[in-house]
Amino acid sequence: LGLPPEAAYDVLTNPDNQSYSRIIKGRQLLENISREVVSPDTGKGQFVRAKKAVGWNFLYWSGAIPISTSFIEHPQFLTVHYWVKNKMFIDMFEGQYKLEPLYVDSERLCKHKKPKSREEYEECSCRQGRIATKVKLDQMFKPSFLFNLPPISWYVRRITIKTMTTLIEDLQMNGAMIRGV
Question: Are strands 131-143 and 90-103 parallel, antiparallel or unpaired?
Fold first, then answer.
């Protein structure tokens, strides 16, 4: 993402409950319904419950699947662990993402050393270097028994991958809009 890690973290954790996904056939791909902070950050992270709706399309039909998710957010480490609570069609859906700074101009401005921190990068680039964000996503998904049998499982896997890819592209486009590009 072309945003600094803190700004990208705000877009991903969505504290103001704004959606960043595109509208497909009259529905948002990922709609944020509500977000509730259950416990504030106590050093172990902030516990958040959210209700979302994932849009789906199949031939001429479309709709939204409501999901309840729980998050443990660690703003100081820029990491989030999440899992889905209601398991209508899924046995397991959980994952985590971690945001890392990406020093865009480090090879050009910091020729002899690779910066290990933001302070080092600002020092060697004379505060002219740009900082982007690298998002690492680790996700586990297992559909329920009926949806885990071939050929249905192939279709479910393809839809899941396509949806996640589209959400990542939407996140990149939202980052470009924030930057004003």
Answer: antiparallel
- Domain-embedded: residue 109: no
* The one-letter amino acid at 27: R
Q: Which residues contact 59 (CB under 8 A, 6 or more apart)?
A: none
For residue 35, what are the domain limits? 5-100+134-179
25-57 per-position pLDDT tens digit: 667 778 888 889 998 877 788 999 999 888 777
The pTM assigned to this predicted structure is: 0.79
Cβ neighbours of residue 96 closer than 8 Å, sequence gap 6 or more: 79, 80, 81, 82, 137, 138
In a domain, 20, yes or no: yes
Q: Give CA–CA dist 31/170, Å, rounded.
A: 13
Predicted confidence (pLDDT) per residue in 77-115, tens digit: 999 999 987 767 788 889 999 999 999 888 888 877 888
**Which residues are 48's β-sheet partners?**
37, 71
